[in-house]
Amino acid sequence: MRLLVCKIAFVLLLCGVPFAGANAQRIAAANDGLTLALADKHVDITTNFSGRNVVVFGVNETGGALVVTLTGPAAYTLMRKKGQALGIWVNAKTYGFKDVPLYYDYALNGDERDLGSMDLLRADGIGVNAMQYVVRGRVPSAQARPFHEALIRQKQQAKHYAYDAQSIELIGGKLFKVNFELPADVPTGEYVVKAMVYDGNVKIAERREYLQIRQAGFSARLYSYATNHSFFYGVGVVIFAVFMGYAANVILARR
Q1: What is the pLDDT of residues 55-104, one digit of tens each?
Q2: Which residues does residue 205 pair with via DSSP β-bridges, in sequence order?
Q3: For residue 152, what are the contacts with CB-CB under 8 A and spacing of at least 6?
Q4: What's the 3-state SS for 165-187?
Q5: Are residues 211 and 39 in contact, defined by beta-carbon separation less than 8 angstroms?
Q6: Structure pTM?
Q7: What is the 3-state secondary structure (H, E, C) of 193-212?
Q8: What span, in angstroms and rounded, lies between the C-alpha atoms of 92 and 201?
Q9: CA-CA distance, 188 to 125, in Å (whole number)?
Q10: Whole-angstrom Cα distance, residue 118 to residue 107?
Q11: Among 43-57, 127-141, 221-235, the range of highest mean pLDDT
């Protein structure tokens, strides 16, 4: 009996090797058929910064469904729920979520539901509905779910998360272009731009580029000083406010 099982396993292994090899060759060929580039890999935030467009372009020769995502740096984020205690509004509940992207936007050239299962979308971070944050501590998922949804709504209202996917502009069938609009208060840090291609509920190609968003000019120096010398910065702000109030009072008194 043991010999029969070994023979069956050997036959299945031989049958599986060509399939696995063919699938690997297919993915390798698809990767060669996908290219990705950024019009500018740096975005400088100055004192008069009011937003910026990030242009992503490339070539998709695979024939599969294309998805392009723009994901900002991740950070630990707190969500609080207010409640009354002795007639005073206080923070009744607080949940901390790990590795929350500070910014997220995406585009695709088809229907999000046709790409694959929800597990596949979660694994590749496609769509706001597929986002899953890890709650700090032992908290039941059903209990943390309302805070998770409120966090996404808060990001969307601040224009840091997309409500829906935008369309990918196709040029000549193979060339593609995506225009991501950054708000004026876009978080700084390193952003990841990913282009992914799907065929038959399987990701067959992926390319990545990196975008740096940073403070520049006077605002960068001011931010650096406020971060590294917070006490003196606070004192300076108070002195400046008092001086401006006194100057305004003097001017109004002369009138």
Answers
A1: 999 999 988 899 999 999 999 988 876 666 666 665 567 778 888 999 99
A2: 197
A3: 128, 131, 161
A4: CEECEEECCCEEEEEEEECCCCC
A5: no
A6: 0.74
A7: EEEEEECCCCEEEEEEEEEE
A8: 43
A9: 20
A10: 17
A11: 43-57
- Domain regions of the chain by residue span: 33-215, 217-255
Q: Helices in the chain by DSSP H: which ranges? A: 2-32, 118-124, 141-157, 218-228, 230-254
Q: What gap in Å lies between CA 66 and CA 60, rounded to an integer? A: 8
Q: Do the beta carbons of residue 26 and residue 204 sit within 8 Å?
A: yes
For residue 210, give the nearest of 111, 73, 109 by alpha carbon.
Answer: 73
Query: Position of tokens 């707190």?
Result: 78
CATH assignment, 33-215: 2.60.40.1930
Residue 14 tokens read as: 């031989």
As a whole number, mean pLDDT of residues 245-251 equals 77
Query: Cα–Cα distance between 32 and 241 in angstroms, integer?
Result: 60
14 pLDDT tier (thresholds 50, 70, 90): very low
User: What CA–CA distances, in Å, run from 59 to 32, 35, 104, 121, 217?
Assistant: 10, 5, 23, 22, 35
Q: How far is CA 177 from CA 33, 36, 67, 79, in A?
A: 16, 10, 11, 36
The torsion angles phi and psi of 218, rounded to 5 degrees, stand at -65, -40
Radius of gyration of the chain measured on its C-alpha atoms: 26
Q: Do the bridges between strand 104-108 and strand 166-167 make them parallel or antiparallel, or are there none, so unpaired?
A: parallel
| Neighbour order of strands in the sheet with 134-135 | 74-85, 88-101, 134-135
Q: Which two tokens stand for residue 20?
A: 């696995």
More confident residue, 126 or 91: 126
